[in-house]
Amino acid sequence: MSETDQPRNTPARIFELYKTMCLIRAFEERAEDAFDEGFINGSIHQYIGQEAVGTGVCSNLRRNDYILSNHRGHGHSIAKGADPEAMMKELMGRVGGTSGAKGGSMHIADFSVGMLGANGVLADGLTMGVGAAQAITLKGDDSIVAVFVGDGTTNRGPFYEALNWAMVYELPIMFVCENNTYASSTLTRSVTAGDGPVARAKAFGMPAFDVDGNNVVAVDALATDLIARVRSGQGPHFLHARTYRVKGHISRDKLLYRRDGETEENWENEPLGQCASWLADNGLNEADLRSAHAAAYAQIDTAVTAAKESPFPDAALAYEDVQDFGPPEPWAGTGDAA
Amino acid sequence: MTTMTFADAVREGLAEEMRRDPLVWALGEDLSTAHGGTSANQYLGLIEEFGAKRIVNTPISENTIMGAAVGAAVAGTRPVADLRMADFGMCAVDELVNQAAKIRYMFGGQARVPLVVRQAIGMRKGGAAQHSQSTEAWYVHTPGLVVVAPGTPADGRGLLKSAIRADDPVVFMEHKDLWSTKGDVPDDEGMVPIGEAKTLREGSDLTIVSWSRMAHLAVEAAETLAADGTSVEVIDLRTLWPWDKVTVYASVAKTGRLLVAQEAVQVGGFASEIAADVTENCSTDLKTFPRRIGAPRMPVPYAEPMENEFRVTTERVVAKAREALDA
Ligand SMILES: Cc1ncc(C[n+]2csc(CCOP(=O)(O)OP(=O)(O)O)c2C)c(N)n1
Ligand SMILES: [Mg+2]
User: In which element (H, E) is residue A241 found?
Assistant: First the structure.
């Protein structure tokens, strides 16, 4: 969100991260409400409990750095600086949505802030991220790429192709593995051999580090370090953030596969509370914390209202941006037969 | 007869085949967790009955789900690979098209590849570009594959059973919006043969050929047209390759008019093949050239007003049918 070259771990800096996390949390909670009220179609994958990862990483990125996200992309997008109001409009399929209401929750993108897209297909962001890094080296600037990947997705082949490739060409890329324990209804460790993502990355000779992904102070510190290394030409790095998917895989998920009490136990480690305590311990007063929290919810409530008031797009827009060559036969804007 | 949902009927069919033949097994993501499948409890309870060797909860590894099914099929078992959605099935097109479809022929008939691959197709409200596609034409185009796209619970169950018993690789395409629809399922074995269409409604003025969810819309269209005094015959192909030419030709001989309706993008779609085939083979019966209707050649948009532009609605089918009837 911000181009922070401030020293790490200062209360002022962490307070900024806290605000971003509050914004993500508020967005996800209000999105779920809107989904339940019938304002959102399809499904939404919430980022609740994982806010510290996207926030800690993206706060170390510049506007012209790229990120590639996945199906759980709302938090990444907000952290990279996408406008939550435009995102909410996208979720509700309204005019002013980030993707012109063509994509919805799983296809948020904001190229103006280097957010090259959420994704409905697992692992495709990894290989495209490698390509974005190739483009950077070709163009010769000092921007970098960060790719977000879930734990379950590390079992897809493109993960290995991308890591190998990135190392071979010494690309300016950081892989961020968000290990939230689950892949849909499956416990990832039940279908994963070996010592996990860090060991896998190291097998390619890639420097790989593990961090408590619910501790934004720690994520931020590690990301500051790794991103500086990537930017200075030291090649790909791997950041593995241990976290927990507090909500269901999608908002409708009934979580039948979870043991009783599991969600509640993990909720105790959720990142916003941890961050607030850290800030309180480091001299921030409660009133400031509370008002930051309230301000985030107020901003999102305004976004929700604006989205609900925004009209649906004109149906004829469906036929725009298909491709340069050739019309979308058999009807294109003349489909008023229906 | 028992009334059940499409998802339940297909699960019953799978369970019955697994009871009958110990070498039938299933593999895919999330198959054995408490949700019993990915979206519609299609595997609920099977892990308890058949155990983890036969209901294999896989990593997210589409290439290996498909490739393993091919390997296991040539090695003497009958795998049912679940790729969740046709959109993710694309991750494993190589193993399906370059391996499963070709092994028997390329190796001079030494082996058979008796696998089933389940790939859910079709639009669900708000599914958008990467969770909505109907890719049946890709696989109909591929020599070596059988493609089925049942539209009712009974056909889902009966065709899955036939698919499992078939020695050819079968792509089993179920429409996501059909999973929760209910219908009567016979109490007997209920086999539905591969390659046999079903006439859903008899008529004398126009034949509408369709499959999967679109066949239901074709019936609605026929009902609308009946109100005008037009008599429309509706054929649900059920199997797309090999398709039931006997039934379609006989119907066209009677009506002299053909409309083929599909949910998939029209350009390069399977409706085009049927229309072309009937043009070539039923020319003396045809009173007018065959019509086809399919979606515009664009990705599926998200917002509802735009999404509706992509949809081949009953109204659009009716309009196209009138075109053929008025010709
Ligand atoms: C290629 C592909 N296979 C399967 C899916 C269906 N799917 C969507 S999310 C998901 C689980 C992903 O788990 P993980 O990578 O851990 O990310 P998380 O959802 O936990 O953030 C699955 C299987 C998909 N979208 N794409
Ligand atoms: Mg996960």
Answer: strand A237-242
Smallest Cα distance from A305 to chain B, Å: 18
The three-class DSSP label of residue A244 is coil
**Which part of chain B has CATH 3.40.50.920?**
198-326
In eight-state DSSP terms, residue B121 is: B
Q: Which domains does chain A carry?
A: 11-306 (3.40.50.970)
pLDDT tens per residue, range A272-314: 999 999 999 999 999 999 999 999 999 999 999 999 999 999 9
Q: Does B82 touch chain A (CB under 8 A)?
A: no
Atom index in ligand 1 nearest the CA of residue A124 equals 1
CATH C-level class of B198-326 = alpha beta
pLDDT recorded at residue A2: 43
Q: Which amino acid is at B298?
A: M
A137 touches A172 (CB < 8 A): yes
Residues of each domain in chain B carrying CATH 3.40.50.970: 2-185
> What is the structure's pLDDT at B237?
98
Residue A38, classified by CB atoms within 10 Å of its CB into exposed (0-12), middle (13-18) or buried (19+), is exposed
Whether B131 is a known active-site residue: answer yes
B170 - beta bridge partners? B116, B146
Q: Where are the alpha helices (DSSP H) in chain A?
A: 11-36, 51-58, 74-80, 84-91, 124-139, 157-168, 197-203, 216-231, 262-267, 271-281, 286-309
Q: In a 3-state reduction of DSSP, which class is residue B239?
A: strand
Q: Give nearest CA residue, ligand 1 atom 13.
A: A183
Return the structure tokens found at B136. 């049946």
Is residue A108 within 8 A of residue A73, CB to CB? The reply is yes
Reported as a single tens digit per residue, the pLDDT across B141-185 is 999 999 999 999 999 999 999 999 999 999 999 999 999 999 999
The strands making up A145-150's β-sheet, listed across from edge to edge, are A66-68, A145-150, A173-179, A237-242, A208-212
Report the complex ipTM.
0.96
Low-confidence ranges of chain B (pLDDT < 70): none
Contact status, residue B294 vs residue B271, Cβ threshold 8 Å: yes
Record: contact A322-B267, CB cut-off 8 A: no
Domain B2-185 homologous superfamily, CATH: Thiamin diphosphate (ThDP)-binding fold, Pyr/PP domains (3.40.50.970)
- Residue A3's pLDDT band (boundaries 50, 70, 90)? very low
Q: What is the pLDDT of residue A7?
A: 61
**Minimal Cβ distance to A337: which of B62, B307, B319:** B319
pLDDT reported for residue A333: 67
Q: How many CA atoms lie within 13 A of B210 on its CB side?
A: 31
Looking at the complex, report in whole angstroms how far the Cα of residue A334 sits from the nearest Cα belonging to chain B: 9
- Could you identify the atom of ligand 1 that is nearest to the CA of residue A153? 15
Percent over 70 (pLDDT), chain A? 96
Residue of B94, B267, B306, B323 to mutate, testing the A interface (most A Cβ within 10 Å of its Cβ): B306
- pLDDT exceeds 80 at position A334: no
pLDDT (tens digit per residue) in A134-177: 999 999 999 999 999 999 999 999 999 999 999 999 999 999 99
